[in-house]
Amino acid sequence: MPQICAHQRPKVEVNASHRYGNLLVHDRLAFAVAQNEFVCICGPSGCGKTTLLDCLAGILKPTLGSVLIDGTPANPKRHSISFVFQEPSTFPWLTVFDNVASGLRIKGAPAAAVTAKVREIIDIVGLTGFEAYYPHQISGGMKQRVAIARAFATDADLILMDEPFVSLDQPTRERMQREVLDIWRRRVRTVIFVTHNIEEAVFLGDRILILSEKPAHIVAELLVPLEHPRDPLSNEFMRLRSECVHWLLPSRASGGVERTADKGRQILADPRV
Amino acid sequence: MAAMTSAEDKRRPAMSFAVGSRLATAAWNAFAVAVALALWQTAAVLIGSPFFPGPIKVAQAFIHLAVHGDISGVSLWSHAWASIERVLVGFGLGVLGGVPLGLLMGLYPSVYARTRAVLEPFRFIPPIAWIPLAIIFFSGLTRFAFLIFLGAFFPIFTSTLVGVARVEPIHRKVGLVHGASKGWILSHVVVPTVLPDILAGMRVGLGAAWLTIVAAELAGGISTGLGRMMTNYAELIQVPEVIVGMLLIGFIGFLMNEVLLLIEKYLFRWRWQVSL
Question: Is A237 on the interface with B (CB under 8 A)?
């Protein structure tokens, strides 16, 4: 469990609204993530989680407000960020080795350092012996491990993960969750992990943020004061899990009648939002 | 058998044809050529016309042309090289023009959308229709290079343009989140994605180049080139020599295509092989 100091500047500060045309996706979404914290973000599908991650990665500017990393607007060229995508994202024309190396190479790491780092991370994700294979020659789960290795190889201080295990079967998924925790504990850094799987969120996160349906805002924040490895059958785990379920119930996740009416007025009143 | 080994095949890096199977393929091709020649010879004997020579007559004409040259003493190889040089220069210009322009128009669809009325009609003017203008404005190698360029450019340009649409947004995003520049995304995401289409366009363009060169050489005004040689012999009604020219064009085109295929096989070893 990382030490979170109260006086330390948060790694990430979000205070933003985002809209696509008339569709308000985020409504004054505000939260902060401490240095080295593992935060899970849960929400109903279509609540704009991917948009949020794009804003955090600095490849999408929020319509209003700001997303700050270390106090400056998120910028992938300045900040050290890595991203694990939901969909398959390996480059089919590169071998496993070159795929894992691609992030480091973009950052301009020297060749010797790339080789050493890639070897190390390939070993951690259990792909040793598959360096020369092309993505079409390995399984879907292995491809996702390549993408995770690529994200962790750059030693980024902020790792964004967008439902990275959604396409995997249950045993592989559980193994990958343990692997991610393992990699994270070898070198602690800030992780923001988006998922709609409550069990996964409680299993991984130091803290869980629960988003409402579109337009999304935070309806609940849960601390998970459990030591790793967590036992999904323990009473405390079950209690946190049902608390998440409770907050994700449709009536709550939609924010309630009053809040919706309030937002309707807000959208009409402020054309910039 | 296939079902039993398929799981194992998946684990095997870098698919390569076994040497044995490559030899067997070559043997089959040699056999197919032999059968085709035998059928041709049989047909020639049955027809028995001087205007329908068999492969033996054609081979004799080939040896004569290769050793002694044609009626004006120009060797077969000078004719062949003249045509090859024209094709390579014109085709090279087609690649140099078609690929960058295809990438540009593909990456900036608004530019393409706003200029296509200028560009696209040219695609439907056959290079042969340019011959009169080419004869007036250019001479020598430039004339042929210009005509072949017109033939090769559009297949290459169009397939590059189509290929750019195949770039996966997720691959661009992987570059972006790591802070990649536009240049990196172009060279490491766009080009690798489009390359198979570029090569396919090049193979079509190469066919168009040979189509154009022969037509351009038939039009006259020069003394070398396989098309020229064929016209000379056609005027003398010496059919075997005309067929030598035809077969040589087919064979040189086939070799160039094989080279492109080898390049493809090397470049695209990352691609899975489709089978039904």
Answer: no
Contact at CB, B14 and A132, closer than 8 angstroms: yes
pTM: 0.81
Task: Tell me the C-alpha distance between B227 and B56, whole Å.
Answer: 22
- Is the CB of residue A59 less than 8 Å from the CB of residue B173? yes
Residues A74 and A92 in one domain: no
- Picking from A77, A89, A132, the nearest residue to B170 by CB comes out as A89
What ipTM was predicted for this assembly?
Answer: 0.82
Give percent helix, percent strand, percent coil of chain B, each to the nearest 5.
80, 0, 20
User: pLDDT of A166-213, one tens digit each?
Assistant: 877 888 888 888 888 888 888 788 999 999 889 999 999 999 999 988
pLDDT (tens digit per residue) in A47-67: 888 889 999 999 999 999 999
Check CB contact of A134 with chain B, cutoff 8 Å.
Answer: yes
Pairing of strands A190-195, A38-42: parallel
CATH superfamily assigned to domain B78-267: MetI-like (1.10.3720.10)
Q: Are residues A61 and A166 in the same domain?
A: yes
pLDDT tens across B70-113, in order? 888 889 999 999 999 999 999 999 999 999 999 999 999 999 99
Question: Measured between CA atoms, how close is A29 to chain B, in angstroms?
Answer: 22
Interface test with B, best of A56, A93, A136 (most B CBs within 10 A): A93
Whether A123 is covered by a domain: the verdict is: yes
